[in-house]
Design goal:
The protein is mostly helical. It is built from four helices and no strands.
Length: 75
Amino acid sequence: MSYKKKRFSGNKLKKQRMQSGLELGDVVMKLWSMGHKKASVQLVRNYETDKNIPGLEYAVSLASIYDCSVQEFVK
């Protein structure tokens, strides 16, 4: 049995943010309130443009903010 490796998708992350009606700054403020003191607009933008991949803690927090599953961020 083979498993296809899932890959993070910045486009899907951005789509979830847009569906939530949030601006980048809104997301950063929510991340800060969750204890992610290194969060920035540039960091989230880099995730959305596939320049960086969020770690598990950020991915879980973003899923919480967008009220979705982390699975929504993979292709």
